[in-house]
Amino acid sequence: FQGGDTCEYLLSSGRFLGEKVWQPHSCMMHKYKNSEAKSCLIDKHIVFIGDSRIRQLFYSFIKLINPQVKEEGNKHGNIPFEDKSASIKVDFLWYPEVNGSMRQRIKSWTEGSVAKPHIIVVGAATWSIKIHNGSNEALAQYKINITSIAPLLEKLAKSSDVYWVLQDPVYEDMLSESRKMITNEKIDAYNEAAVRILNSSSRNSKAKVKVFSVSKLIAQETIMKSADGLHLPESSRDTNAMILMNVYCNKIMKPIDGSCCQPQPPLTLIQKMAFCFFTLSIIGYLIISLIHRNNYRKNKSCTDLESGEEKKPSISTPNVSTLEMLLHCFCKLGLIMTYFYLCDRANLFMKENKFYTHSSFFIPIVYILVLGVFYTENTKETKVLNREQTDEWKGWMQLVILIYHISGASTFLPVYMHIRVLVAAYLFQTGYGHFSYFWIKGDFGVYRVCQVLFRLNFLVVVLCIVMDRPYQFYYFVPLVTVWFMIIYATLAIWPQIVQKKANGNCLWHFGLLLKLICLLTCIYFLSYSQGTFEKIFSFWPLSKCFELNGNVYEWWFRWKLDRYVVFHGMLFAFIYLALQKRQMISEGKGDPLFSNRVSNVLLFISVVSFLTYSIWASSCKNKTECNELHPSVSVVQILAFILIRNIPGYVRSVYSSFFAWFGKISLELFICQYHIWLAADTKGILVLIPGYPMFNVLVSTFIFVCVAHEISQITNDLAQIVVPKDNSTLLKRLLCIAGFFSGLHLFSAIQDQSRH
Question: By C-alpha distance, which of 204, 200, 170, 202 is closest to 184?
Fold first, then answer.
């Protein structure tokens, strides 16, 4: 930890990821769109003063506002630019030398009531070297001139953002004869003079001229691609312009993936209350632990002097042990949430942008595949999609999704489409698992519903409070929660049709199919009626849960993307359980699922279907078009995988305990990655150990997995306490939970009002 001023790092240091992606040291750089640039610079006046290199930077900057601008006009004269729609004015002033003329122009902004520019970008030196043939007298005069200008720039820096752009190195072999005197040695001397003189008299940090030295580093890597050896290639100029935009706009726009120059967000009222709660929990747990330790010492087994028998220690009452467990859970959770906050809200640890390469995605995939195969064990049961197999399925899918996120593979469309299938497969399991439970058990009690809802939502609710994020931000949990409630409603609404009832009369099977058809019709209608969908989820209190950035469009998009797959999971469960009940499939150890002939045909069709989908996904050219087809065709690869995995008896009889272990904590892994493995709400990568990318990933991954496992245990322990089986006690707990959310809503309203 070297301090919180990431602006200095952004202006002075960094490295290239690949050929064109610039990574500032310790922070993330946002890529500004035209609309964002206009919003940030509305009613602003920006001035670029200098030579042809500054003119190039000027053009790259205004192209961020209007990409249609062409580099026209007098190259050795002033160039104005104005965007009337946003009242933005950007001027280039041709002053190729640091001399009296430049000083007079700068001085005019410091006198009287003249309107000062909001941003001033200055830089010049190569013309002085060229005109005076690189003489030492010219350098001495440059020092005198910049010494006279420095106080004026520092005065302007009190009210405006002033940047001095250091001179980029040149590619001496490509310079024309008239520029041969411009050497890197001379440029370094001029830069050294500028750095030494600027801010030498300023003691106020707010009145400092910001030295834009990062351009030198960018030029060192790219100047050999220059057309003339002096001017930077276009991609490098665009990077410099984007850095300037980040320096000024990040503190105004506060983009999630632009951590450079962003101050640490202030603690909200709810966050302060959460901090107090966890602090009291830790103190309470420590007090109870000390009391129990003292009681244990007093009641320690000892010999009775009269009877000669050993006395047994008294046992703690159940109420005390429940309280201790509760405080113990909140104590651990408080420490874990502190780590979450420090990683992704405090400016303590570094954050970096993602950068995708094929090797960064596929090599880890191969590695975990080898590990998974190495830990192969026999299953306890050989049914289709048994518990060990579904845990294994969730585990390897979750690991692939994690690698996909940290490698930034979403930019590669074929990988994106296959990951969409993995997300769909998780929802397929949701439909399959919950339908199977309700169909077989017929348990529609409140206890079951509350247990599922608590386990799904506990961590997300805590993170919404601690990390100050809306519920819909963790989109997957709302998605799974809503689908669980849809499955429950479909089967619980009269007439309740379960397996036991259907076995007595086959007509009930048709009744259940009719329910499923009604569900499919509703899904189809809502998917093509965005207005109706948004109206349903815009009603209070649903709007509080499903709004993101003031509307429910993101929720509609996420729901629509996998709208049919839960239905497919329910239908598959119904067909499979019907076949199982009629003993039309063989699930013995080592036995194929069907007869040899049928099994071979189905295996062949499954393999062809699996590969066909992969070929289609790999040939996708447009993400929007492929997303439109995905809800209807993703089930093909999911069913193909299930059949390939379950038809051969020997494949169905084994599972990977490595993948299954991760599968048991897959939900916690998916949620925790947002803040303690990735960074800036999944937009970047958390850097605990700078300078060693591989070692950093190993350390952060180890902590991340341990935390996810611990949270899984905490959730299970709390579920037993918060959601008791006794209905009367459960009702009281539900009233307490309703009171908690009412209070949370009240404080949230107060918080929003204070922000506005």
Answer: 170
